[in-house]
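Researcher: Please predict.
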Amino acid sequence: MAITNAGAVLAAQCLMNDSATFLNAANAYLGVGSSTTAFSAAHTDLQAASDKTRKAMDSTYPQRSSNVLTYRSTFAAGDANYAWEEWGVFNASSAGTMFSRKVETLGTKTSAQSWQLTATITVTAA
């Protein structure tokens, strides 16, 4: 998973408490989409034209342990029934900031399934 340009700006805003919408339990969302478009730091949303869905955090998420952040959302039977080819971490249910995006084939979800997506972000020094 790579941080977007907008995600880097959001991180800077959070460090300064400068009008940021935090990636906390009230605002964090995981999104999935069906696009295989390569990652670009300039992306501001998932790249799928229509097959993309965001879900709020599961209860008790996100979590932090030292420098590791864990985000988890459950996509119920009626949610996101298509090939999952990309995912991202957002600070709003729509629009807002896409902090990070990953292009990765996770499989094809059907309406007979409920899937849980977990994203882990490790903050490290260079």
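Model: The chain is about 10% helix and 40% strand.
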